[in-house]
Design brief:
mainly alpha; 15 helices; single chain; about 50% helix; two-stranded parallel sheet; 2 strands
């Protein structure tokens, strides 16, 4: 066994390899076991990937089912759903912009970019640093990292920080109720003297961590340390405020939790001996079950029947990165 697997009481590889999920098996062999595997494009022909592509609309979007017009328009619900489906194609199946489906989806999402550089609409007329960064992250991973539109979004994110170096939703720093302003003609600017939100900062940092140049910035390193120092703490704002949300997980990443935060911190290259990194790894050790997987709270469980295994894979990847 390799060093990182020696740190765990039970071997987690067996349930991953024995799963019937070919994408998960591929990533396990390639990333955890360092085996030679076929090109990533082999995943693009899997039925589970083709099923997602089949539902894509001609304009590059995916349709959101349900929703309330008082919250956002049908077009902006589709923006949200396109972001979600793009996450599956890129994270689970390794798609990039050489595939026409990704190219079409990217152009649909870029149509929501404002002259300022952010992606607008998911929060109505208001700024959304978290969704702007989330969309930016996936587009970077899809191969658009050198695109001038990505640079514009990154620069907007850098300019929209709180004074302490993190990020927050402007609506929350102004103490307005959501439905009072979500579709207002008045665009709320953030009160930058207010403290950062670790929930929002963790999402924003994913865009910088994905970028081969910006992840090296000292500004981003300091923001990552700010996030790391707040592990297992309550957030400063009411959205997902309780510290219990640090240990509630999704994949592809959506909110900020220990796994998504550690993923960014690894690429931003924070010292691996930071006490909160070690504390996180110890927490995961205690949750491992005799079958090799982990007993953790998983959100959005209806999206992917194998999400428990994907979370197990991500925990293994985290151990390998920080202990190998």
């Amino acid at each position: 066994m390799t060093l990182w697997r020696d740190q765990l009481e039970y071997d987690p590889i067996q349930p991953l390899i024995l799963s019937k999920n070919n994408a998960l098996i591929y990533h396990t062999k390639r990333t955890l076991l360092d085996e030679k595997v076929p090109l990533i494009e082999t995943l693009w022909e899997l039925n589970s990937a083709l099923k997602i592509i089949k539902k894509q609309k001609a304009n590059g979007s995916w349709a959101y089912r349900g929703g309330k017009e008082i919250i956002r328009s049908r077009e902006n619900y589709n923006q949200l759903e396109t972001y979600r489906q793009l996450g599956f194609l890129i994270e689970n199946f390794g798609f990039n912009n050489s595939h026409t489906s990704i190219e079409k989806a990217a152009q649909f999402l870029f149509s929501f970019q404002t002259d300022l550089g952010d992606f607008r609409g998911i929060y109505g007329t208001q700024y959304t640093p978290n969704y702007s960064a989330g969309i930016c992250e996936l587009l970077i991973k899809a191969g658009y990292y050198a695109d001038v539109r990505i640079k514009k979004c990154i620069e907007w994110l850098l300019a929209s920080r709180q004074n302490d170096g993190g990020w927050a939703i402007p609506i929350r720093t102004q103490n307005y109720k959501w439905q009072e302003v979500v579709n207002s003609d008045i665009i709320l600017e953030p009160r930058t003297e207010k403290p950062f939100s670790h929930i929002i900062t963790g999402v924003v940092l994913r865009a910088f961590a994905a970028h081969p140049y910006y992840r090296k910035s000292e500004e981003i390193r300091q923001a990552a340390l700010l996030l790391l120092d707040n592990f297992f703490q309550n957030d400063n704002y009411p959205d997902r405020k309780e510290k219990s949300f640090w240990t509630k997980f999704t994949f592809p990443f959506w909110f900020t939790d220990l796994l998504s935060a550690l993923d960014s911190i690894y690429f931003i290259d924070i010292a691996k001996h930071h006490p909160n990194i070690l504390k996180s790894l110890e927490w995961f050790k205690k949750q491992q079950q005799p079958d090799g997987m982990w007993d953790v709270k998983i959100l959005k469980t209806g999206v992917d029947k194998d999400i428990k295994l994907w979370i197990g894979y991500l925990i293994c990847l985290t151990f390998k990165r920080f202990l190998a």
